[in-house]
Specification:
Aldehyde Oxidoreductase, domain 3, 2 domains, four-stranded antiparallel beta sheet, TIM Barrel, alpha/beta, 11 helices, about 290 residues
């Protein structure tokens, strides 16, 4: 599992977020907190969940003030209980306050994604099915949100449109307008796509799956398909293609979907609607 985030990307996204928040012109803090006042703060989990985003929070405080000390007390991917201390920060109080909201925004968002992912991963424990994210990410934050999915025990789907093939419903509409069938589409993809890329096709019925398998696809995306139909397609595809279920899958239904035998389950909600984890920063009372 890839755990590293690109340093240059982190510097760019953190600097942009701090500028957006006006951290360099904090009217309230600059009026009330002397620049030489030092102290410490703790970042605390207010509810149980999976921690993700500590390197991003560290980059926020380092950008706000390189002299701040940032000491994680847990690692990304760790399960935190309500009340656990995640980080201790020491240095100029004004600098801590300048970076507080941006650091928490990243931590809450990414920990929420990791926590939502872990719940789905736990729900299919003991089965070989793997949980994937999708491209339904916040613009500009895709590397971070995909990282959070990995911290929750999930895996990443293709990174972007240039990273893999996936023939979806609107592609089918465009092809039908040209009189191209599934076999023709697969031949065009194999001729034009980079060598070694697997061809994935979205299907909504057993018949479409049969046609796609006959055309030689590598992966079948079973879109909003009933579980009995999924079982039939999984049996048809065995030894011929991988299978991926997607569409309307929830924590309550995911195990039953995995029990059909699909290789993957992709869930857009991991990144487009995971609730933020409640995390707060508290200044320690002993300021000097």
């Amino acid at each position: 599992m890839q755990t590293q985030l690109d340093d240059e990307y982190l510097r760019r996204i953190v600097s942009s977020a701090l500028a957006e928040d006006g951290a360099g012109d904090d009217i309230t803090t600059d009026a009330l907190v002397p620049p030489d006042l030092t102290g410490s703060a703790v970042i605390i989990a207010k509810e149980a969940g999976i921690v993700a985003g500590l390197p991003v929070a560290a980059a926020v405080f380092a950008t706000a003030d390189p002299l701040l000390s940032f000491q994680p007390r847990v690692s990304d991917g760790a399960r935190a209980a309500a009340g656990d201390t995640l980080v201790e920060v020491e240095g100029r109080v004004a600098s801590i306050l300048h970076g507080e909201r941006v650091a928490l925004n990243f931590l809450q968002r990414l920990s929420g994604i990791a926590t939502a992912t872990a719940r789905l991963v736990d729900a299919v424990a003991g089965l070989p099915t793997r949980i994937l994210d999708t491209r339904k990410t916040t613009p500009g934050l895709r590397p971070l949100e995909r990282y959070a999915v990995r911290m929750g025990g999930g895996q990443n789907h293709r990174y972007n449109l240039a990273d893999g093939t996936l023939v979806k419903d609107n592609h089918w509409q465009a092809m039908r307008a040209q009189g191209i069938d599934i076999g023709g589409a697969i031949r065009q993809l194999r001729a034009k796509a980079r060598q070694g890329l697997r061809i994935e096709v979205e299907v909504t019925s057993v018949e479409e799956a049969k046609e796609s398998l006959a055309a030689g696809v590598d992966i079948l995306l079973l879109d909003n398909m009933g579980r009995e139909s999924m079982r039939q397609v999984v049996e048809l595809a065995r030894g011929r293609a991988l299978t991926e279920a997607s569409g309307g899958i929830t924590l309550e239904t995911i195990r039953a979907v995995a029990e059909t035998g699909v290789d993957y389950i992709s869930v857009g909600a991991l990144t487009h609607s995971a609730p933020a984890l409640d995390i707060s920063l508290e200044l320690q009372p002993s300021l000097s």
